[in-house]
Amino acid sequence: MAYSNDKPVHVSTYVRYRFGRWESVREHWRSYPGQLSLF
Fold it and tell me: What domain of life (predicted)?
């Protein structure tokens, strides 16, 4: 059963290590996790 929620989620600025280097992720809004159903 897919979990559906239309509320956007605020993501604060942070730094992460990916693909062998550090990168800065800007503040942004994204859709609520769990919206997509892969099966």
Answer: Bacteria
User: CA–CA distance from 35 to each of 10, 18, 29, 30 (Å)?
Assistant: 16, 24, 15, 11
The model carries a pTM of 0.49
**Amino acid, single-letter form, for residue 19:** F
What distance in Å separates the CA atoms of residue 35 and residue 28, rounded to the nearest whole number? 18
Angstrom distance (rounded) from CA 12 to CA 33: 16
Q: Which residue has the higher pLDDT, 13 or 1?
A: 13
